[in-house]
Each structure stands twice: as structure tokens, then as C-alpha cells.
From TrEMBL:
The lineage of its organism: Bacteria, Bacillati, Bacillota, Tissierellia, Tissierellales. NCBIfam families: ftsY. Belongs to the GTP-binding SRP family. FtsY subfamily. Part of the signal recognition particle protein translocation system, which is composed of SRP and FtsY. It is found in: Cell membrane; Cytoplasm. Keywords: Cell membrane, Coiled coil, Cytoplasm, GTP-binding, Hydrolase, Membrane, Nucleotide-binding, Receptor. GO terms for molecular function: GTP binding; GTPase activity; signal recognition particle binding. InterPro entries: AAA+_ATPase, P-loop_NTPase, Signal_recog_particl_SRP54_hlx, SR_rcpt_FtsY, SRP/SRP_N, SRP54_GTPase_dom, SRP54_N_sf. This is Signal recognition particle receptor FtsY. It is an enzyme of class 3 (hydrolase). Its EC number is 3.6.5.4. One of its GO terms (cellular component) is plasma membrane. GTP binds at residues 148-155, 230-234, 294-297.
């Protein structure tokens, strides 16, 4: 009788152990799929730029066979069309020419590797100290101020970022600092619900700095790890924008000096060279610590990330490759080139 019971117990334990092992295998499989998905998503997100850049480069290199000046002119045109920017493009092409001469490269096809290396060099051209593209949220508390012109993708990015940080195990709070219209607050509320994080909001038309003030007090009381603040992009002129942002910054300095600070500028990749101009204006108005480049999935102008990096000396930290909550990725220069040029 006891023997039977012991065997029954042993079988049960073995069954349970096998079940756990199976579950672990499933989880490991999911992780592999997730990792693949990340890169696949990036590749898919960059497909329009790839069609505009890589495919054209491929056909030109094939059609030329040997290197000559016309080939370089055509390469130059492709990069400029992809919004790599005139100055940055010239620099890249000049370097390739020089290296091709030095290394006595004659075959057009051998240019590809030089091009890849030169783009990578440009993407990594920000100061060494700024090459860390991780968000400054390692120590708690942290505050992230999100700025940018209207329609750039600030609110959407905040939703995605809140979700990502929550997935990492952080306690996240959002402050609705864009008080320009009721719809903006509702939109943020929707994202906060989706990401399952709390939101601090006032009524439409109220003082944004007061919302941020309340957000900070709430973050302290609730012991939040990260407070993410939305701001309005719909300001009539540069002076207005600077005044409002400065007021917010003063509140943060005064009320939350212990928090690590990140000021993220959100720019829309589909606006191409305009994104660079915007970034320059904001850089004058405030101390931007990172750039988020959104809507890369909707444009053939993905080359703008290269120009942004070479002209601004501010690291691109995140990229948006779709409208879904999981469509925000950390920017990785090597993976970006791999997805773009292969
Ligand atoms: N395809 C695509 N669409 C995006 C991405 N990021 C944002 N969007 C879309 O861009 C539009 C504007 O985004 P918002 O987040 O509302 O932009 P905002 O900067 O908050 O705009 P305002 O509040 O008007 O200043 C929305 O329709 C978003 O879905 C992205 O990475 N890819
Ligand atoms: Mg918004």
C-alpha cells in the first residue's frame, strides 16, 4: 500500500518536473522569436529607405563594373535623395574616393564595404561621452522631458516608452504637460491605460509647468522610478517655446534635483531635412540629451538619421518603426546599417 503511494508520489513529481522543463523550453523559444522579431521589425521599418538607397546602389554598382567619377556622382545623388544631407554626403563620398585610391580599388562592387564603413563612422561620430545611447534612467528617480514640434510623435513615443520601461520592471508615471487641447490629454490617457501606468493631468488650458510640478510631487509620493513628461509642440514661435520650456526646466531643477534627467527631442523622419532644422532650433532652446526619430517605417528618407548624427552631436537614442506599442527600438548603429545595407 505504502509502496504504491510512494510510486504514485514519485510519478507525480516527475510529471511536474517535466511540465516545468517544457515550460522553460517554451519561454526560451519565445525569447529567440522575440529577438528575431526585433531585427525583422527594424528591417521592415526601413524597407522604404532600403528600396530608395540599397536597391539603387546595388544596381549602379552592377551597371558600372569599374570605378569612375560618374559612379561617385550617382552615389552622391542617391544619398542626398535619402536625406543624408549635402555636407554629410560630400564627406562620406570624399572619404570613399580617397580610400579607394589609397587601396587601389578598381571594381565598383568593392565600394560597398567602404560605403558601409563610412556610414557607420558617421553614425558613431558623436563625442565618445555621448555614445551611450541608453536612456538616462539607470538610477531612480529619473525624469524624462519629451519635446518636439506638433505631430512629431511625442505622445505616441511616451506611450511606447512607458510600456518598455514598465516591461523592464520600472514604476512609471506620466505627466500630461501638453495642455493645449483636451484631445491631447485624452490621447495620453489612452496610452497610459495601454501601458498600464498612472497619469497626472490637469484641465485643458492650464499651466504646463504646474502639471509638471504636480507630476514631480506625485512621483515622489508614489516612489516612481521614472516620470515621463509630455509637452506642447503647438507654440506660435521660438520665443514662446523657449519661455515655456524654460519654465518647465526651472520647476524640474528646483523640485527634483535628485532625479537623473533626460531631455528627449522627438523628430519625424518623414520631414527629412526639416527634421534637422527643427533639431537645431530645439538644441538652441534647451539642453537636448537625446533624439527620438519617429516614423522611419513611413519614409524613404531614413538617411536623415546619418545627417542628424553628423550635424548635431546629440545621440539618436530611440527610433520609431510603427504605430504599435512595441514599435519603439533602441538605436543601434551597427544593426541599423545591417538592416539598411546588409
Ligand atoms: N508610422 C508611424 N507613425 C507614428 C510613429 N510615431 C508616431 N506616429 C504617428 O504620428 C501621429 C502623431 O503622433 P503624436 O504622438 O500624436 O504626435 P505629437 O508630437 O504628440 O503631436 P502633438 O500632440 O500634436 O504635438 C500619430 O498618428 C501617430 O500614430 C512611428 O514610429 N511610425
Ligand atoms: Mg501630443
Amino acid at each position: 500500500m505504502f509502496k504504491f503511494f510512494d510510486k504514485f508520489k514519485k510519478d507525480k513529481v516527475e510529471d511536474l518536473e517535466n511540465e516545468v522543463k517544457d515550460e522553460i523550453k517554451e519561454v526560451e523559444k519565445d525569447e529567440v522569436i522575440e529577438k528575431e522579431d526585433f531585427f525583422t521589425k527594424l528591417k521592415k521599418g526601413l524597407s522604404k529607405t532600403r528600396q530608395g538607397v540599397t536597391d539603387k546602389i546595388d544596381s549602379i554598382l552592377k551597371s558600372y563594373g569599374k570605378i569612375d567619377d560618374d559612379l561617385f556622382d550617382e552615389l552622391e545623388e542617391i544619398l542626398i535623395t535619402a536625406d543624408v544631407g549635402v555636407n554629410t554626403t560630400m564627406e562620406i563620398i570624399d572619404n570613399i574616393k580617397e580610400r579607394a585610391k589609397e587601396n587601389k580599388i578598381k571594381e565598383a562592387n568593392d565600394i560597398r564595404i567602404l560605403l558601409k564603413e563610412e556610414i557607420e563612422k558617421t553614425l558613431k561620430s558623436v563625442e565618445e561621452s555621448k555614445l551611450d545611447r541608453k536612456l538616462n534612467v539607470k538610477t531612480s528617480p529619473a525624469i524624462i522631458l519629451v519635446v518636439g514640434v506638433n505631430g512629431a510623435g511625442k505622445t505616441t513615443t511616451i506611450g511606447k516608452m512607458a510600456w518598455n520601461l514598465k516591461e523592464e520592471g520600472k514604476k512609471v508615471l506620466i505627466a500630461a504637460g501638453d495642455t493645449f487641447r483636451a484631445a491631447a490629454i485624452e490621447q495620453l490617457e489612452e496610452w497610459a491605460n495601454r501601458a498600464n501606468v498612472d497619469l497626472i493631468a490637469h484641465q485643458e488650458g492650464s499651466d504646463p509647468a504646474a502639471v509638471i510640478y504636480d507630476g514631480i510631487q506625485a512621483a515622489k509620493a508614489r516612489e516612481s522610478d521614472v516620470l515621463i513628461c509630455d509637452t506642447a509642440g503647438r507654440l506660435h514661435n521660438k520665443k514662446n517655446l523657449m519661455n515655456e520650456l524654460n519654465k518647465i526646466f526651472r520647476v524640474v531643477e528646483r523640485e527634483y534635483p535628485e532625479a537623473s534627467k533626460e531631455v528627449l527631442l522627438v523628430v519625424d523622419a518623414t520631414t527629412g531635412q526639416n527634421a534637422i532644422l527643427q533639431a537645431k532650433v530645439f538644441k538652441e532652446a534647451c539642453d537636448i540629451t537625446g533624439i527620438v526619430l519617429t516614423k522611419l517605417d513611413g519614409t524613404a528618407k531614413g538617411g536623415v538619421v546619418i545627417a542628424l548624427q553628423s550635424e548635431l552631436n546629440v545621440p539618436v537614442k530611440l527610433i520609431g518603426v510603427g504605430e504599435g506599442i512595441d514599435d519603439l527600438q533602441p538605436f543601434d548603429a551597427e544593426k541599423f546599417i545591417e538592416a539598411l545595407i546588409g
